[in-house]
Specification:
- The protein is mostly helical and 60 residues long.
- Helix content is 58%, strand content 0%.
- The chain has two helices and no strands.
- It has helices spanning 2-27, 34-42.
- The protein is elongated.
- The chain starts with a helix and ends in an 18-residue tail after the last helix.
Length: 60
């Protein structure tokens, strides 16, 4: 019985923490472009670095 006194509040806390994390991700735009990520996974072009130049990881 004392285990339930610890487990129920811990489960409620973790559930609330998950809800807060989901709402944060929703408001910060993490789910805005769902199809773009699928298309980027299929691209053949090498990824660009932050400066906008292509990396030279595949010398030709």
């Amino acid at each position: 019985m004392t285990a339930l006194a610890w487990l129920i509040p811990a489960a409620l806390f973790l559930g609330g923490l998950g809800l807060v994390a989901f709402l944060w991700a929703l408001r910060s735009g993490q789910f805005e472009d769902l199809e773009g990520a699928a298309y980027r996974a299929l691209e053949d072009d090498p990824p660009e670095d932050r400066a906008g130049t292509q990396s030279n990881s595949h010398p030709e």
